């Protein structure tokens, strides 16, 4: 990595963010800002926030989840219920130099962290608050997802009842929208001197996304509900197929070229042509391929059913078809796409040991930064308070003794 | 909205992005940058890119999907296969003023759009390329998802085979990572004068995310695969319940307080206490609530089964429990959370009519910008070429006649 790459890879160098957070969205936002070069200080209550012991855990009780979402941050632990701790952390937010004055939080209803309270002391404050809903009420990824529509169209057509997505997609999107809003606000502040008061409700992330993708618009315009499609792709030809040995494959034909390759592979060219004539269907049109998906799938199925996963893989590799074999997480981590991927690097993580950790997915000049370990809780309490608030060893000893702060355990 | 809010809400004002894209990730990135105030010019081949007619469609063939993901952009249509069109669009990318020189694309392998080709003409170029995989091979959301592990742990425990998520979560996350990387690169360029060459593989977005959330780390550390959990939440107590009338509810108890409220609601306090004693389980611990989830669910089920959705809703509203009723997209769009939500505003969209469209989910000073219509294909071809490349009416007429450009149809 040359000098240009190193610095273009850290575009938020000089920015300092105080994060008071838990769970996924806000921690991901902070970690993402850190990966872009910001100094992100996660402030937790003594003993840790509600996510500090969240599963999965190692045998000694370290949270794999927490360490995964807090890589590269500094950790300050303080008594956030008492006046002294609140005063200290308020100071840390507002008295943190020209690149500071940025608060990222998902803790609602704490007066001492209000925009007005903090902006009275630092007018160029950037404050981003993640809410459950716009009215300030609580919602989490799992409840937002239930209310948005996707679980009732997920899974096999014959299934009744909801199927939740396992990926906390709304939290993740919310975290990235938050990181983006803060990065934009930094540019605005550097140009104008003005801060920003930003509100980001998790539910609105889901609603905006469902709107942007057309799910809501379609429901506004048409009385016909979109059906449960199993693993088919709405408006395109895509389906999963099972091999003789139980391996499963996702097959996608977005274009006529892909579709042609699929009929060649499965030796169904003549049958597909005959079907096109009999059904008066133009299979060069993606809508026709979608409309007639069931009969097409029935036609392609035997080719997959009569071959092993290895045979199917070898054959698909010779084609332009978009495909993947469904894999377990254990298969994923043993694959060179992880083990030989520069996105991953060995990371010595206290409490976990050395494991292959991802850095940020975007690379600059083809290079990835090394992933950084998550802190121990309170690991940087004294370092940060010395450096940012110029507290002395005596000050720190008194705060420690009064249980206003805690240092790394 | 006061003056400060208006400008803090448009932090990317003065930035100009040329987007050559299709489908979800790159278009969402461009739209998101536009929502932050950037001038985003989507350049398409004559007749539109592969996503221009993607379902859902209106009766007259307008894509609800395309219009949803391209709101607020300007559209230029040009012959991207011929030298004249390529020269024109190259000029548009490089000769676009101090805020320009930014290319967002997911079209791989076009030499005229290479970083080196363009940066030779504009050294401070910011170029972000979205790839399928890091090696440049093709992958789409559906194939990436198959290969990452989630479909094999989604859905009912007794289900065999993969269940795809309906939400194209990897595309969406990729789009937001792209918007963020470009915004960071803008800050870097404004500070140093240096451009950025950024690569973002869709597959690496999925791998990094699965790593950050601990799914991959857990698989590296433990030989035991995480089971299919149905609608339960790993490591927490959460489950869906069905009402007497078929309504379904997602119920989440993240904390002891939530769990206590759930036992009170369902009148199972004594039974839960007896279970805790008999099983030697401490239900103040989230791990114990997760471990014993099946018996707890069995205990809570009759309360839901004996009541209607309306009765359950009324009762849940009096508690601190995290909950939602599962809703269809049609129920969502009829709800005040959409119809009375300032996130949505009536948008007159050519080809669709006026519908409630979302703006960006983050609000500044509590205000949302109005959503902007998607362009007609080529609507701004002449406007943009006049303004950016100072072409005359004669120039434009010649280009039109030679089928190098097209204007709005």
From TrEMBL, chains A, B:
Keywords: Isomerase. Gene3D superfamilies: Crotonobetainyl-coa:carnitine coa-transferase, domain 1 (3.40.50.10540), formyl-coa transferase, domain 3 (3.30.1540.10). GO terms for molecular function: isomerase activity. SUPFAM superfamilies: CoA-transferase family III (CaiB/BaiF). Transmembrane segments: none annotated. It comes from the Bacteria. InterPro entries: CoA-transferase_III, CoA-Trfase_fam_III, CoA-Trfase_III_dom3_sf, CoA-Trfase_III_dom_1_sf. This is 2-methylfumaryl-CoA isomerase.
